[in-house]
Specification:
Blueprint (H helix, E strand, L loop, with lengths): L1 E5 L9 E7 L6 E2 L4 E6 L4 E5 L4 E6 L6 E3 L3 E6 L2 H8 L53 H10 L17 H16 L29 H13 L4 E9 L1 H13 L7 H15 L5 E4 L4 E4 L5 E3 L1 E3 L2 E3 L2 E2 L7 H16 L13 E5 L18 E5 L3 E7 L2 E15 L5 H16 L8
Parallel strand pairs: 12-16, 16-17
Antiparallel strand pairs: 1-8, 2-4, 2-7, 3-6, 4-5, 6-8, 9-19, 10-11, 12-15, 13-14, 17-19, 18-19
Length: 432
Amino acid sequence: MAFAFKLPELGENIETGDVVNVLVSVGDTLEVDQPVVELETDKATVEVPAPAAGKVIDIAVKAGDTIGVGQVILTISGTESQDEAASAPTPAVPEPSPESETVQPLSSPAPSPPKTPVVSSAPTPTPTTSEPRVGKVLAAPSIRRLAREFGVDITTVKGSGARGRVTAEDVKVYARKVMEQARQGDAPPSSSLTVALPDFEKWGVVERTPMRGIRRATSRQMTQAWTIPHVTQHDRADVGQFESARARFKKETPDVPLTVTAFAVKVLAAALKVFPQFNASIDVANGEVVYKQYVSIGVAVDTERGLLVPVVRQADQKTLTQISTEIAELAGKARSKALTLEELQGGTFTVTNLGGLGGTLFTPIINHPEVAILGLSRSTYEPVMVGGAFQPRLMLPLSLSYDHRLIDGAAAVRFLRWVADRLEHPLLLGLE
């Protein structure tokens, strides 16, 4: 007996993926959970495992194809019990963070325990609409693709088809309505229509490459984030005492990778307790401010595939040693594509350190739905007036971007100065 193995659910709002590589050939004998296809979605690159053992008798996809949930991948011959297992409902895989990209198996309905998908990236993008659809949106992959081409968030489109299914005409009508509102100066904040580009080939040869995976997800997340009214406040901290303390700390505990980023996380964890509005989110739809009673800080990590933001959970309850060790482990996992979904979710504030690369000041973009982010630049020695004379001081540039809908300038200055003061006087927090 043979059965057709179809692409299982990949996660909420993920209906299609690009086939990167077919990992099996006709005639191969499969084992349960053996990867058969490497698939790239907007959120991650994953290996789709076989739901049962059997022999491959036909392959319906090839590298470069875009396939949708429910589409046949390959046909497997096997025992009746295997066929029955394959026909069982496939549990949905939790949606990864938007800036995520790695290769790990999806969950399958095989008898063996489901595998936790491994991803690598930053926070899951929120639909750009103030009135998102509740529940799963019924729409074919081609209709979702059409919506993306028009720049329309399909969760805002009311379907006229059977059981509320969204049709091509529904998408077109919605797009025309938003364009008309835009012309009248009354476009809703949720609209995100694309602007047509000129024909660049008029002026010379061009090359087009698809924007895939982490870069595509980052683009969408940044578009969403840029709807936030950003303000950036700059300051500097004299980190001479910290560097001296770090030198002593490193001598006493050489195995602990104490970095400026780690100490900044320790300081921020304390600051967010004093300034709770920086540890909040804005619920626009309900007109509420969500104050989180936990402190979990995302740490931006530069990888060859893009920026990832693993999260140090309950940072306010951890010692500096624990934070330093955890950041080093998370950064290593991010670069080796071994981060789990859990390690990329639940952040309440983000810190990004570009000091190792250079620069003086910058304006970091808020990681939606958070309301603030702290950027660190390269420390340099500068002349500072101390006791009537200039002295060389190691100054760390700080850049705080914040959501002006919730945080006023005066509050941002106080917050940043509080952080700078603790960075300047590490003994105020203690080096544990």
